[in-house]
Design goal:
With 305 residues, the chain is of the alpha+beta class. It has eight helices and twelve strands. Strand 1 and strand 2 form a beta hairpin. Helix 3 packs antiparallel against helix 4, helix 3 runs parallel beside helix 7 and helix 7 runs antiparallel to helix 8.
């Protein structure tokens, strides 16, 4: 190793880049120690990330993900993952020069959604089910159990979350094919670099450890974080997605309700994970207030009609 430094932006693993003495650059991710308290869905996340990158490389090689170089595990030291380092910069670092990259990302996501799993939910024996409604309800149940374990005050009692998911079970079960979902496609996980004309194009998709199988609509939430896809049909990500699919996105009532369920899931997860990340109402009151407001809005939307 010739040089190295920490990389920021993540909330789960410690991440470093390193330059080897042959000039190659790699990324090292180290999971929390075996003694750390984790959320239920965070079990074996680095192993999941290695599986995701290998799966994409094998079945959608046109989507640029880091090559997996080594995945290691030790009962005492924990778990680590070494990948190649992709070129480019994350979208939040590009100011306003990223519309083409977002379009590319939408097209790439549509490509990934053509990959099909053998059941819904997480892989490798983790939380899931034979139907999307069963898997989604179990995923929400895990987060509610985590909230109880960490003594987190939610903006509504757990039974309200459960009732709204159960109410929409038939709608969820309209999804019959478990599509591969990245889930965590916010701007920080999309890399872009200038092409020959100087325009920034997508050149990398990272942090695939939270992947699961389910409704492709779930992947329309994180790329428009804290916004609503149905209110921004001309967003470059959505245009790229629709063009790659070959049909316009139609935001009918069923689609809007599923998107509301998936926003509720994301906002619930972001709320539940805060104590494990050291985020408290004292050191980040704005985040707590915003997520509580978003969750209340999600629940109200789902209860209406």
């Amino acid at each position: 190793m010739a040089d190295c430094a920490a990389l920021g932006g993540g909330g789960f693993a410690a991440v470093w880049w390193a330059r080897l003495d042959n000039g190659r650059q790699v990324v090292l991710k180290v999971a929390p120690p075996p003694t750390a308290r984790l959320l239920r869905y965070e079990t074996d996340l680095l192993a999941a990330e290695a599986r995701y990158f290998r799966l994409v490389a094998a079945h959608a090689p046109q989507v640029p993900v880091p090559p997996v170089l080594h995945h290691g595990r030790d009962p005492r030291l924990g778990e680590w993952l070494v990948t190649g380092r992709l070129p480019g910069r994350a979208l939040p670092d590009l100011d306003d020069a990223d519309d083409l990259a977002r379009y590319d990302f939408g097209a790439a996501m549509a490509t990934l959604h053509r990959i099909t799993g053998d059941r819904f939910g997480y892989d490798a024996g983790r939380t899931g089910g034979a139907t999307w409604s069963t898997a989604f309800a179990a995923i929400i149940e895990d987060l509610l159990a985590d909230a109880a374990d960490w003594d987190i005050t939610l903006p509504a009692p757990p039974q309200r979350f459960r009732a709204l998911v159960a109410r929409h079970a038939d709608l969820l079960d309209e999804i019959r094919r478990p599509a591969l979902l990245h889930f965590d496609g916010w701007d920080g996980n999309v890399l872009a670099a200038p092409d020959g004309t100087g325009a920034y194009r997508m050149c990398g998709l990272v942090d695939g450890e939270r992947f699961l199988y389910g409704d492709p609509l779930l992947d329309l939430v994180s790329p428009l974080l804290f916004r609503r896809a149905e209110e921004e049909p001309e967003h470059p990500f959505l245009r790229g997605y629709a063009d790659a699919v070959g049909t316009p996105l139609v935001f009918d009532e069923g689609v809007r309700r599923r998107l509301a369920l998936y926003r509720m899931h994301l906002h619930l997860l972001m709320t539940v994970e805060m104590p494990s990340r050291g985020i408290t109402p004292a050191n980040d009151p704005g985040r707590h207030a915003r997520l509580a407001e978003l969750l209340e809005r999600d629940l109200a939307d789902l209860a209406a009609g």
